[in-house]
Amino acid sequence: MEFRNLTPFDSACYKMLDVDDQAFHVVAMKVVYSLQNGQCVIDESHYPSLCVQDEFTGEVNRSSIRYESDFAPYKPLCDVIVNAVAYVPGVEPVASFPVKVLMTDGSGHVLLDKTLVVQGEKTYRYHASKLEESELTPFLTLPIDYQYAFGGENKIYANSPYADALQDEDRLSEAALAEHPEENPPIAHTAFEDNIIGTGFAERWYVDAIKEGISFTAPRILDPEHPFTLDSFANQLKRKRNTPEYIPAGLGVVSRAAKTRRALAGTYDAEWLNHRHPYLPKDFDFAYWNGAPKDQQIPYPPNHMRIALTNLSGTCSWEIELPAHRAFVLLRMNNGAFIPVMLNIDTVIIEPEQNHVLLTHRIQLPTELDIRVIEARFEVNPEVPILTIKG
Question: Structural domain of residue 332, as residue ranges?
Fold first, then answer.
């Protein structure tokens, strides 16, 4: 089987196996639309490549993911990712304000409507055995980054002045110390596994060891329906983290290392090792490949859609209307037939700072189909058929 890319965009064809070990050809195509002088255009001076590995905003595995690899085999839903900075409406610093993402189709039907609240710095502190919170500090801008959402980790090292205050049950076991990724590991360590880079996470053992004077930075990105409060901070010390305010609030990629996401990857135990390796476990869920927050995973959207952001750009309001262009493949079969197949949009990355939107189109084709050639194609005229047979 031959693959031909007849578009100016970066496209690739690769193979995947499902949980039943059925093989598929996967075709992925990366398209970028730029906002220039208020118009949505394909920037012919820049065709981005498919992302071959996860790209972080800072240190690998210790910062947020800006782009996840485009070489996913299959996404059951479309990921909508927003890499943006929150900007105060107006010119004066404020304590908090909302940001919003709205996506609609060409007819105005809502595809995604999400609002978050961003706030200034605030700390929680124990003073005279009483938990107190500071006033919010007014601010102008804040990156929408998971380092400002709920999460984090608690560590105490052997040379810490608080090491002697640890109880034996709080210390890492010899086995845990041997497996710890740090060269000189802490002697006590727990983390919020859905967002280890976040802020506001606290464990009772850590608070008890440090006691007076300990302070924690509150999350600055919140779900307005389930805000993180002083009570939220106090309740987590009782290990009550099963309510929505503890879900990290954000608009970007959720790490594959996050506990809720990696749970979708299936079971890798002795049964798998002895009977399935190197194939996928039978309980693998392809939703694992969807990296957006749950409320930003939507059914595959139409090509024609509108995106409006509020307080997520320097102009406060940012809007773009994507045209009804069509990405598809033409299958040239060994029996002489021609079969056009539309690609699904399964990743939308909105970046107002760069004034563009990145789309990843994808399709899966069973390898058992008698295909001679797969041609990646792109049609910019929504009025013409994608395939015309000339007599």
Answer: 2-83+257-281+298-379
